[in-house]
Fold these 2 entries.
Entry 1:
Amino acid sequence: MKALQDRILKDGKYLNNGILRVDSFINHQVDPLLMDQCGEEFAKEFARVKADRILTAEISGIAPALMAGKHMNLPVVYARKHKPVTMPDQVYFTVAPSHTKGNMVDLIVSPDYLPRGEKVLIIDDFLASGSTILGLVRLVQAAGAELVGIGTLIEKSFEGGRRSLEALGVPVVSLVRISSMESGKITFTE
Amino acid sequence: MKALQDRILKDGKYLNNGILRVDSFINHQVDPLLMDQCGEEFAKEFARVKADRILTAEISGIAPALMAGKHMNLPVVYARKHKPVTMPDQVYFTVAPSHTKGNMVDLIVSPDYLPRGEKVLIIDDFLASGSTILGLVRLVQAAGAELVGIGTLIEKSFEGGRRSLEALGVPVVSLVRISSMESGKITFTE
């Protein structure tokens, strides 16, 4: 997606540890119009999977998932990292290693919002190692729901996350794929 | 706002501890079309304050703030509760008591996204005691930016938060105001 590529080149910042900083338009500060465009693009890409629901992870998945949900007219559920007092005691729960934080994070979903048999589309901001997304996939499986697709804004294809998702047999769509950030130079691949 | 009132009556759940559970359409599960309508309403209400930027707090402020930002064509910044590795060391920082969690939460904003002199509109999901919003106000003041308005989806007017915000001298707009939840019966006020 050209608009997102252009924005990454203009405002993305490469941090030495393999992390792409996009906190001026995706995390921390969000560009709502860009996210709206990305949501529209997800809606086009996933029209044929006929999802019932979108699942994402707090925090930075919320913006792209919400805009995808708006364009697809679907409810959006975000897995919580801490169980709020308003959540029932019986939940779907998994843990996933956090790439940027170096620790494990909890992913918790209320069974009320992940019904058995529904078709679930996962949307998140990044596809890097794929560990957060695989955590979301485990929640879908625990619920007895059906995974129908995975969409991310930015894939760092050199981290191999796509390979770990391939066995799932669903379409994996990233709006932008970065094949290299060697020496801070960002190279896209189609 | 009638659509939001209706949804609260239909799907809101009163928990005995004074907490209104709205996790089927605002927190945890989000209804993107309802949030879009709420964002449009905020845009109307705050058109005349000519904000440069919207500030909210993660996590549940993100959806309404993002949709308001879309309708107002403004960047949205969400205060983080944990400092990510991508954030610079020098930040604006405050702590605020969390109503639903009973502990203190950090609110952290990068100076890059809260520039001195800009007009800032605060949007959040709830106005209860007002403590989170007052935390956001302190960040605006620390940055030398100008607060121009406060918008929330749901005000629990019996918790007195509005009174604590009045001294700020800016419009405080809640799309729905609940005056009582006695015995689980939700009463709205205009």
Entry 2:
Amino acid sequence: MTKALPNIAVLGATGVVGREILKILDENNVQYNSIKFLASKRSAGSTLEFKGQKYTVIETTPEAFDDVNICLASAGGETSKKYAPIAASKGCVFIDNSSAFRMDEDVPLVIAGVNDEDLRKHHGIIANPNCSTSQLMLPLKALDDKYKVKRMIVSTYQAVSGAGLKAINELTDNTKTNLVGMPYEPSAFKYEIAFNVIPQIDVFCENGYTKEEMKVTNETRKILHFDENVKISCTAVRVPVYIGHSEAVSVEFENDVDVNEARELLKNTDGVEVRDDVSTYTYPTPKDAAGKNPVYVGRMRKSIAFDKGLDFFCVADNLRIGAALNTVRIAQKVIEMELY
Amino acid sequence: MTKALPNIAVLGATGVVGREILKILDENNVQYNSIKFLASKRSAGSTLEFKGQKYTVIETTPEAFDDVNICLASAGGETSKKYAPIAASKGCVFIDNSSAFRMDEDVPLVIAGVNDEDLRKHHGIIANPNCSTSQLMLPLKALDDKYKVKRMIVSTYQAVSGAGLKAINELTDNTKTNLVGMPYEPSAFKYEIAFNVIPQIDVFCENGYTKEEMKVTNETRKILHFDENVKISCTAVRVPVYIGHSEAVSVEFENDVDVNEARELLKNTDGVEVRDDVSTYTYPTPKDAAGKNPVYVGRMRKSIAFDKGLDFFCVADNLRIGAALNTVRIAQKVIEMELY
């Protein structure tokens, strides 16, 4: 390491993902020269504790990015659209959690440990994939390297924390209201989420899929450099879980798959933890994954729908691998590869 | 109708599905000569109300089936294994909700309105398919008639009521315990079901799929007379919902599919209700389906994973179409076709 340590900014520091970013910056002991915390005008002026020190949250303005080398941003698409180009023009590497730039050809879309080399092509903005895509990439990359993915069908079981603080509180309020037999009028969701599942996340596209579902198709292709011949479809469903996205995944491969070999492969994949022993009812659930870093894989079995295929169940903390953890890991790679 | 009205028995009348059978016998105004209610020794002697009249629950014994023409049974596999052959030998048509006889070659496996003609082949026992299979059959039969099913991948979101009264109470207790931040030791489920999802229903088979998952494969093939070339796989997941199973379904067909045509087709299919208008956020959820008879279909879209395929989301009251409603409908067909 020859380069001076970076000045870091965390944008959206007071949100659900922002708080998680602070935790992980601490856990991973990320080294920096200086750090500051940016938020909307509303949250500016409030105090925030990081590594035992108190910081005043600063309002996000163009000037706030002066002298910042790396910004970890999770403040929503509108804020990113406004400030990412400004930050980049000032020489700051803007690592963005929103969907604003993900499919931009000039913006690398990166899962640390999967396609780190794409980071070298950045022009100031780096995008973090959507949570439902992110957790799949580590196991899928390992399987693709060995068996070559041809087709994938994903059904998700997504936690409410993916929709922010208001949605988390709504699950609690709605549940309590239901338990005493009172009616409840949802507002964070279109339908009641308590004791229910909702087959819509994000808005609908013209082809009938939701944006969330198309993100799995398009972001997976971009991250793993798949061409259009690799067919991917998804059904994204919200479930009454606080933290932890789950995915039922069916993959067809070009090559024959041996399930025991595939299991060993994933056991040796960084960031993946295999929990898969039917004799002891061992498989991942979101409650067990919450607060943890690995992507958990279980229920691995040779597909009976595809001649060369595999079915598995993939669970991860959506606020970590799906957002904050990967953002911090990208920052660490940018520092390590001296790309700031 | 020339035949005398049947003497009916309801076996397992005090269970979750049994109670629902009573409701639907009343709603559908099923005609009979006499009716009686059978249960285990433990429940025998208790009183039960049906159509405003009080009945004493009778202990299930071989003699209890004397003079019974049609028995609607939902008392679990062991009870069915014991009493179905006895009942049949006494000339009773035993309509069974358990999985005990479903794959028996001599036993028709029937969804009323889908394969009624199979009823004619009965030898005293008729099986009701598993709940996760049942709700799919009405829409799938219509789609298969038109487009010919080639491959199907199903991910389920199954309500706890499918696991009985104890599981229903456990969801409530576990949820309340979680809301006050106390630990909970599950017993009806292997893992906590509150604010969680569990990717296991029923026991594991040698191929890594669960019995519940293999039921979808095998029962669908039997009901729709598919040969082994039709490939079907399923991932069955328990979710914290009281009533209403949901299924994310991806189907590949032999023939080209037009999604608008397919939607019209299902709109005109008896027992199916299409709730599918993305412009008004109209799609089915289990909470809306609970207590109702139709199989609801929404989120219909041309597959982007298969050249000739369709994705959709299918929701139904698992205690009704998945169990009690189909049992009663089979009884009605047996009466109508004079097969008792």
